[in-house]
Amino acid sequence: MASFYGSFDYSVDAKGRVNIPAKFRKALSPEAEDTFIVTYGSENCLEAYPKDVWNKRIADLADHLPRTPENDKWLRFISGTSADSVLDVQGRIILSATQMKYANITKNVTIVGNIKGYIELWDSERYKEYIGATMKDFDTSFYAVEDQLAKMGQSAQV
Amino acid sequence: MASFYGSFDYSVDAKGRVNIPAKFRKALSPEAEDTFIVTYGSENCLEAYPKDVWNKRIADLADHLPRTPENDKWLRFISGTSADSVLDVQGRIILSATQMKYANITKNVTIVGNIKGYIELWDSERYKEYIGATMKDFDTSFYAVEDQLAKMGQSAQV
DNA sequence: TGTTTTTGTGGGTAGTTGTGGGTTAAAATG
DNA sequence: CATTTTAACCCACAACTACCCACAAAAACA
Question: Is-above-0.85 flag for pTM?
Answer without folding.
Answer: yes
